[in-house]
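Recall that a protein's primary structure is simply its ordered list of amino acids. Everything else, from secondary elements to tertiary packing, is in principle encoded there. The following example makes that idea concrete.
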Amino acid sequence: MSKFYAVKTTANQERIVANLLEMYARKNRTNVYSILEPKELKGYVIVEAESYEDVVKTVKGLSKVKGVVKREISTKEIDHFLAPKKIVEKIKEGDMVEIVYGPFKGESAIVRKVDEVKNEITIELINAVVPIPVTVKADHARKVERR
């Protein structure tokens, strides 16, 4: 039966640690089954493994790893990281977004209205001569920052 453990990492290096863990686990065929690197969880990577010892063995000597939390993590504690979220739930009015698909690809814009039911946002392009509201699918935009 597999268990979940938290690996403490250097801040903002979670992706690198997850990649290093994956490479080491594949190469050495350790009993690590999955690696979760949620953006909301700063300074930690969640590892699913056979035992605590397997996780310690896998992270030993890896750079940017500060240690392994000894307590096992229940699935209830990580379920919310696994549930898919609509992009529109993350975007709010006033956010700055970059358009990643369609005719306005690469343009920056300010969100003026969010329609969660239709999964659409109404934006105003920043570099437009005349600010005209444009409605696009929420998954065609990537949140850049809050204004």
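The first helix runs from residue 14 to 28. The radius of gyration is 20 Å.
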